[in-house]
Amino acid sequence: MELEELPGVGEKVAEKLREAGFDSLEAIAAASVSELKDIGLGEASVVKIINAARDNLKMGFETGIEALKKRELIGKITTGSDELDKLLGGGVETQAITELYGQFGSGKTQLAHQLSVNVQRPVEKGGLGRSALYIDTENTFRPERIQDMAKSLKMDPLEALKNIHIARAYNSDHQMLLAEKASEIADEYDIGLVVVDSLMSHFRAEYTGRGTLADRQQKINRHMHLLQRKLADMHNIAVVVTNQVMSRPDVFFADPTAPVGGNIVGHTSTFRLYLRKSKGDKRIARLVDSPSLPEGECVFEVTTGGIKDSKNKD
Question: Could you give the CA distance from residue 261 to residue 196 in angstroms, rounded to a whole number?
Fold first, then answer.
């Protein structure tokens, strides 16, 4: 079914929809009324258009058997460490948002680089045979690290770089715009992984003080739902976001480190992985939240060649 076949959608309205990024029935069915109203359509027309798209796609209830069949489409990307893969139930999942949080130097960006290389590997070697898209908010992407990791896996370093599409986000609006753009080019570039490194950097810098907290949280909520709905769900993509941390002064006896972004980031992320430093190259990963996996910890190493299992786990 073409857009022009939807009720109330002629050539001009279809053109407006496509320009705004709603170029498929799936995109329209997943949109909210307010999103389509923003392009100049009336509320009654928008409701009709969305309902018609959803009816055509049969977006109603389904049996558990049908849900199980959809789960079979999920792919997993190896982290490079068997122990870390085991903690994550086999690797980083598509159709999900995996949040990596921890202090500076805990390995968040290194793991994001490694996944950007590993997603390009064939399925039998723990990849998806697809490309990566990297939204860099803190100027932390280093092509030299990609080359080191690719060489360690006996991959062509230049080919590995060619299959990673990088964009530098200069503020929170630009960051959200790049995520929108990613949903438009996902099929064209056969994207299997989207990295946002880091998620909250610009939001923290631009929204300071308690008076701006509500606006910030609404904005990050839209951003996270876009990552899940328009990227992870619609294109069977693994979304990985790195996150900064803060120290909670009210915690005296436990680890006071907590991720920023509040409950919105916590609830929207499918998997939450807390990374922290250990001795030398060793890092400790703790699975804090998952819909199906138990909490647990593992040790891995950040080496010159990338993420590896720790030889000495003490």
Answer: 14
